[in-house]
Amino acid sequence: MKKTISLALLLAATLPAAAQTASVRPLALSAAEDYARQARYPQWSTVLELGAVDPLIADRQPSRQSALGAGGAGPRLTVWASTISALPGETVTLYAALANLQTAPRSLLDGLVGSSSTVSGARISGELVGERLGALGAVSYRDDGIAPDTIAGDGLYVARYTLPVDRTPALGTADSVMVKTQALLANNERRAVAGGFQFSNPAARLTGRYLDSVKNGNLVLAAEVEVLAPGRVYLTGTLADLADLPLATAQAAQVLQPGKQWMDLSFYGLAFHDRGVAGKLRLASVALSSTNGMPNALGPVIGNAHVTQAYALTQFTKASFADPALLETVKRLQLDAAGALPALLK
Amino acid sequence: MKLSMALRASLGFLLLAASATVQAAPCLIFVHGKQTDTNTYTSWTAARNYWKKDSGDFIREATKQFATSYYVVGYNGTNPYYGAQAAGEVANEIVNATNGGADGGGNRCAQTYANGGTFWVVAHSMGGAVMDYILGNNDASDPNYNYGGAPFSTVATRLAMVVTTGGAHRGSEGADAVCGDSSGGCNWAASWIQSCDTATYWLRSADDVQVRTYSNAPARNIYLTGGYEAIFGASACLSGEDDGVVQYASIFACNGSANASYNNSNACNNSYKQETSGFRNLDASHENHDDERNDVDRDTRKAIPDGIWMCGSVKCSPDTTVQSAMSTGKFISILY
To answer: Residue A5 is nearest to which of B20, B312, B313, comparing CB atoms?
Structure first.
């Protein structure tokens, strides 16, 4: 089904709305603009904006989970682990913090405001349960200044758990470990929340040997990997300049057989032109995971893994990748946008 | 990296030069949220009814009284987001829709992909995590490319975009509470997180289950809207603004902590998302988690940082009231 509109109407539709009126642009037009930008890069490597954080590092920062009492009453129990993924035999530090809300419990519509003060004297315990492995163990958190705790009575409770080697997930797989944490307050109130981390047993590891070269106008970091069992592996990394400003990301995945071999991580050359950076570059972070099923078996992030030779900007491609699928979507969205009238509403 | 002026001008010219003959609206493909049973997978009617309540019908409103073609997906909402009967089923149904196949109710997209059609997904709640997983694993270099043999790459090629309403992109603190055996008077029983079933387990905010841990940036944009109307009991237990089930940090796919407190003034902008690209803010509505998908509440809408609403020639300031009585279903209808 098609319809016809005049160019004059189309022009009027794309003009800004009156100052007092809230309107929306056709979403197709916004998306087409985004995709025209994104099509300059392949999905396996993209440039980072100046000032961006290293996405691989950001992805591996443990999130915190928290729980309040009935009606949003304090104190708030917040839990987190020292890592999002740990290997067999590795010790994970588990944290739990209890903090009062200095304001009254929030109303239904207001956000929590105000600072907090910590709460000591509670009894906090944790139960570790693997999704497939089942019950793994239990821990007691302490806030008495005795290791693993460092400061008595500061409201930060600490426990440690060493992942049992005899419960290791099959090679190349991982299990999700939920940490069910309960705090019993001095007034017998209870707080409970689930945190977690991953018990990982990747079937491949980085040996620490890297080579760099330019191929087809792209910077290729070859990483030597040691594969222990056949399967799919996923390599991802972030490149930075020597001032440690993240510059570009790249990823690659392959099915590999056991043994030592090289795996290429290719950074698209246009990134160096867009950022105006060349010379020596640093592989700021890199990680290798087994991706044979969910959850993937994450390997550790290796920081400052390699510094490349010095390269001239002219060695890198200036060409847009011109992702054909994205450009086709751009074309279709432009046609859709031409048919959409901005809503002039309020 | 900024879009050059030349590129902008070029796009504008292309738009105007596209000729006066224009295509029909995109086909809308609806992907529901988490369920406590398998009804929406085994019964298309249940999947269709997910979008209705009383006289309200989200799909009717979003499709401009059914003037726009649509397709309703039903998947197993008790599966984890990555499951064969969740992401796998959704991907297969999207491919069917773009091939011109009918949904369980006989609805078809007006044009196939081969004939030039465009397709938008509208996803609610867990449907957001499902789409994150599909579109973040469509390339051979992605960690879970075409996971389980599902056609994620075909979906990414054929979709134009996704709009999520109350998307659980970073999970729900409600899931953290329920799986942690918390009662705490939070009234989770009113929602889909009544128990720590498999889907709930994988909607916790811990990193070992987060979709972003297992996905790359989405291959097509995911546009974000969600509600800030409380649900009694539950909202008091969530961080910052929320829709009674999902907190803003998750609805707006924020980077950093999944339980950071955000509101309409400071919701994370487009530069601070769970992936380096592909997530874009739209707006916020005074709706709760159910209102976001059943069109029963025509309420206030607010601008948020980097949102879509324009006040004159500039973006409306965050927290500006941009509409006084508009449902999310209606909002979808004015986006195309």
So the answer is: B20
Taken in order A196, A201, A205, A208, the sign of the CA dihedral is positive
Q: CB under 8 Å to B314, separation ≥6 — which residues?
A: none
- pTM of the entire predicted model: 0.91
Q: Taking chain A, what is the end-to-end CA distance rounded to the nearest angstrom? A: 30
Q: pLDDT per residue over A140-182, tens digit each?
A: 999 999 999 999 999 999 999 999 999 999 999 999 999 999 9
The reported pLDDT for the residue numbered A303 is 97
Is pLDDT larger for residue B193 or for residue A316?
A316
Between CA B205 and CA B42 the distance in angstroms is 29
pLDDT on residue A273: 98
Kindly state whether A320 is in contact with chain B, defined as any CB-CB distance less than 8 angstroms: no
Q: Give the C-alpha distances (Å, rounded to integers) separating A99 from A73, A79, A80, A160, B263.
A: 11, 11, 14, 21, 22
Which residue in chain B is spatially nearest to A264 when comparing CA positions?
B141
Distance CA A207, CA B307 (A): 45
CB contact under 8 Å between A345 and B261, yes or no, is no
- B68-72 mean pLDDT: 98
CA distances from B178 to B174, B188, B191, B201 (A): 6, 8, 11, 9
pLDDT higher than threshold 60 for residue B319 = yes
Q: Is the pLDDT of residue B258 over 60?
A: yes
CB–CB contact A67 B180 (8 Å): yes
What are the DSSP calls for B79-120, one per residue?
S-TTSIIIIIHHHHHHHHHHTT---TTS---SS-TTTT--EE
Tell me: pLDDT of B47 over 60: yes
Q: CA of B177: which chain A residue's CA is closest?
A: A193
Kindly provide the residue ranges of all beta strands, DSSP E only, lying in A45-172, ordered along the sequence: 45-47, 65-67, 76-81, 85-86, 91-101, 116-118, 123-130, 134-141, 156-162
Cβ separation A72–B236 shorter than 8 A: yes
Contacting residues for B155 by C-beta, under 8 A, at least 6 apart: B91, B94, B95, B134, B135, B138
- In sequence order, the 6+-apart residues with CB closer than 8 A to the CB of A268 are A41, A42, A44, A45, A46, A47, A218, A248, A250, A317, A321
Band of residue A120 on the pLDDT scale cut at 50, 70, 90 = confident
- Compare CB distances from B11 to A33, A195, A251 and report the shortest one's residue: A33
Residue B177 has pLDDT above 80, yes or no: yes
Q: Do A71 and B205 touch (CB under 8 A)?
A: no
Spatial separation of the C-alpha atoms in residues A129 and A148, rounded to whole Å: 21
Q: What is the pLDDT of residue B325?
A: 96
Q: Tell me if B123 sits within 8 A of B73, measured CB to CB.
A: no
- Please give the Cα distance from B266 to A48 (Å, whole number): 23
Mean pLDDT of A307-325: 98
The answer to whether the CB of A38 falls within 8 A of the CB of B57 is: no
Greater pLDDT, B260 or B146: B146
| Omega before residue B151 within 30° of 0, cis | no
Taking contacts as CB-CB distances below 8 angstroms, the residues of chain A near B276 are 46, 48, 52, 55, 249
The CA distance from B163 to B167, in Å, is 9
Q: Which residue bears the tokens 């000591």?
A: A120
**Taking 90 as the threshold, does the pLDDT of residue B189 lie above it?**
no
pLDDT at B185 over 70: no
Structure tokens at B281: 């803010």
Q: What is the mean pLDDT of residues B222-241?
A: 84
Chain A contact set for B25 (CB, 8 A):
336, 339-340
Could you tell me if A265 lies within 8 Å of chain B, comparing CB atoms?
no
Q: Give the nearest chain A residue to B81 (CA atoms).
A: A294
